[in-house]
Amino acid sequence: MRSFGIKSTQPRRKPRPPRPPPYVEQTPYSCSTSMISNSHERRDDIDPVLKEELSSIYTDVPGFEEALFGGVKDLEKAGTAVFHRFIEGMILLQGNSWLA
Q1: 41: buried, middle or exposed (CB in 10 Å: 19+, 13-18, 0-12)?
Q2: How far is CA 89 from CA 10, 71, 84, 96, 99, in A?
Q3: Distance of CA 75 to the CA centre of its chain
Q4: Among residues 63, 41, 60, 59, which one has the least CA distance to residue 50?
Q5: Which residue, of 12, 27, 36, 62, is most buried by count of CB atoms within 10 Å of its CB?
Q6: C-alpha count within 13 angstroms, C-beta hemisphere, residue 6
Q7: CA-based diameter of the chain, in Å?
Q8: For 7-29, how does the pLDDT look when each residue is reduced to its tens digit (9 = 90+)?
Q9: DSSP labels for 16-47?
Q10: Could you tell me which of 46, 27, 28 has the C-alpha nearest to residue 36?
Q11: pLDDT tens digits, residue range 24-57?
């Protein structure tokens, strides 16, 4: 369609603003032991959550320690120093328990 230099008398339409994303009622509920660390939940309620969290932990991965700590000089000495600094601020309770 040719305009022949005639201007339209209809105002130009502005593009519509983008629609907001659909309303999500709530973030899906998930439970982890970090949520219940200072709670008085019964152990029967906590054990299944803990089991689910720990089910994917791998142990005895070949080369893990070397890959993670291989570049740390005097790792044993540094680890011992960190441990001793840590226990300086703790109190030994009866038995083998520590209180921070």
Answers
A1: middle
A2: 78, 29, 9, 16, 9
A3: 27
A4: 41
A5: 36
A6: 7
A7: 98
A8: 666 667 777 777 766 666 655 55
A9: PPPPPPPPP-SPPP---GGGSTTS---HHHHH
A10: 46
A11: 665 555 666 666 655 666 767 778 888 888 887 7
Residues in the chain: 100
Phi, psi of 23 (to 5 degrees): -70, 125
Structure tokens at 2: 């040719």
What SS3 class is residue 71?
A: coil
Among residues 66, 35, 64, which one has the least CA distance to residue 49?
A: 35
Tokens of 34: 């970090």
The residue to which tokens 């520590």 are assigned? 98
